[in-house]
Predict the 3D structure of the following.
Amino acid sequence: MELVLLGVRGSTPAPGPDYVRYGGHTSCVAVIPTGEATPTLLMDAGTGIRSLPSLLGSGPFRGSILLSHLHWDHVEGLPFCRAVDRDDARVDLHVPEQDGVSARDLLARTMSPPSFPIEPEGLLGRWRFLPAPERPVSIEGFEVTAVEINHKGGRALGYRVASAAGSFAYLPDHAPSRGMAPSVRNLIEGVDVLLHDAQFTETERRLADDYGHATVEETVALAGEAGVGRLVLFHHSPVRTDDQLDHILDGVDPPVPTVVAREGMRLPVGVAHDGAAQPALLT
Ligand SMILES: [Zn+2]
Ligand SMILES: [Zn+2]
């Protein structure tokens, strides 16, 4: 399978000339199954989802979206993507349930007047609003496992997605310093690719703790402990410029091959991870 990073920022989009090379869209990752040309699974629906039509040609999206949590930067692109908002689209949206509220109603808390012009039912196509899986299930042919992880403000999930081709884990917002259950360690153990929160650095430890995020240094250590094939530093701070991201690993010695997420990056999953294969850039 292949991952295409459509949005790699956290918190807010980051427009402007200092954010061109790594991109300014918030979290969204498209998953293309082995042997297919187009994605059938999306991780989150930040503003990066607006670029989804570039992977689909003129066609609609037909597949599933797994939300890690409901913070704005992970859902705000949803009603602004033509590929999912058209009559011939089919979308299963999986939402982390909480507070005894249905998936649809959780989404409607921010997606309804007066916060937004339409309610979830206003999206065109065939939509289903579903709870995120509580146990390993098959979604779009992938084996999906979701585990609750520590973040801040509401329930957040980390995901492991596997197929015969390989596996990846997706934890865009995660505060390992608040504690990690064995189930979280199992989730990331030995995956081919780990996309993980790297919003802050150790020099910004107080901010990381205040907002419930990880630092680059602890993410790198975590990836080493888990023996992942490749680490992708993800969910960059919206004030981290291109030049700063170029040097984000200075003084850090990652024990596994590590790349800094960049919008448009394509990452093969389940091929040799000897560090030689460089991810290609989407043109
Ligand atoms: Zn976030
Ligand atoms: Zn968050």
The pocket of zinc ion (ligand 2) is lined by residues 69, 71, 151, 173 (CB under 6 Å). The first helix runs from residue 53 to 56.
